[in-house]
Amino acid sequence: AVVSTQSTGITNNLSMALLDGVGHIGWWGLSPSQDLTTYCKHNKGDNPLRILCLGSNDIRHVLEMMCSGRKVEVYMMETNLELYCRHILFFSVLLQPPNLMGLQEKTELYLDLYGNCLARSASTKFVTNSISSFIRMVTDEDYLEKVLPMLDLSALKFKERDFMEGIFKFWGATDSKSKEAFPIERFWDGRVRAYLEERYDAGKNIFDMDFSMKLKERAALLDSREYATWRKSGVGFEVRDGVYDTPNRTLCSGIIKMIGGSKRLARGYWGDITCSPYLSHGIYSPLKSMYEVAEHNLMCLIHQINTGKKYNKPPKPDRFSFAGGEKKEEGATLEEVIEEEEEEEEEEKNEEEVVEKIENLNVGTNRRKKTPLMELSEPKSNVSVKFLPLGTTEQLPEKENLIKSFDLIYFSSSQVSYFTPKITALLKDDANLVIENVKYVVPLQKEHESAYLPKIKELANNAKCELLGSNDLMNNNFHLSFHRVN
Fold it and tell me: Which of 62, 63, 76, 280 is the most exposed place for a label (fewest CB within 10 A)?
């Protein structure tokens, strides 16, 4: 695993608050998905938009931009190579051909691997059976161009690709020793105990208080029971009557710790245990309902990316059976019951066929020198994604071809220390930039929140940028937007 060195960048107190609850690596975003093209001042016309994303942690904004209808070149800079590996995984899930995997199955698989520490065996089997294809994507540019042409890894260093290959191999390890290498239930409980300390036995009350004080008003569609369940177990999205007993290795990373007087790499779960994976896709809905909005919102994105058409079917109203059928009114007819059972059997059959085809795709590697092509659909969008080498943000302005070339720069809340005149020189004249808000970051106390906007405005002033919109942090919704002054 790769050592995690997530930069928090504002104050030491804020850094410690984030590390205690949000962790050393961000597996998901701390704000809802947004179409970042809407923040671009010059977002009309046929010229492609170029957007730099610093530390977005997942591909939620990319999915929104893929539905925008605009031609966009996205440059992504993450803090950990494990995140790039997860990006490849999720692009591969959402672009599975419809004859191999339906919309419902894609959505369930995506959310299971995205936000659950313990996943269904079918989900982890999909990962295991795709490993050889993932490895070839990062080691063979010609293969990547054929399978996933929207993705460009050419800027990554050879050492980074080697690390990514090692990460994929860990995901796919199946020997008995490897199964013991990531006891995520123990890791999760250890993180919760360390965070709550003497309050651990009162955990349920603490979870309820955090929800009421921080999320209830700001993310009204979240449910306190689901949030508390995730805080306790690390399982955020439950599908049907699925059994969640397989460690989700895609959530494994490493940090350097002092052990026995010497620095050692400690593998474990070092991500968020307070904010939740619901924030990226699950706190807003045009339906204003109490449905499982994450499923609906993600399903809409995946459908539009694969078909080019908007998905208008409302989500099913059974909140606690994440992909369950519609609740039947009392007195449902025998025909309705049989029809529902047949639909569920067909979905299960489709899932089995997907796994079987992927298994067939990857068997016989001892007879072939190269992995057969993974089948992926071509997205109905004009978005390309380029991964940048880790830790090279400050070196970007040294590339003359990037100066004044970006229509927008996006900073996650963990990357705002890079909001400097040197980095804003990458923006085109009269362009905008966006900074992630911290209104959903549960561990932050009021004094931390109060200090955030003044610090950001100070950085903006030094970089000759002006705040757009309200000076009230809570009224700026998901992000803070700034305009570069010539």
Answer: 76
